[in-house]
Amino acid sequence: MRQGGGVHLLIVAKQPVPGRVKTRLIGAFGPEGAAALAHAALIDTFEAARSCTADRVVVAFDGDATDVVPRDFEVVAQQAGTLADRLAGAWASVDGPGLQIGMDTPQVTGPDLDAAFAALDAPGTDAVLGPAEDGGWWAIGMQEPVDVFVGIATSRGDTGRRQLDRLRNLGLVTRLLPTRRDVDHPADAVAVAGLAPWSRFAATLTGLFDQGYAYTADGVSEVDRSSSSPAALASASASASASAMTMAESSR
Question: pTM, whole model, 2 decimals?
Answer without folding.
Answer: 0.83
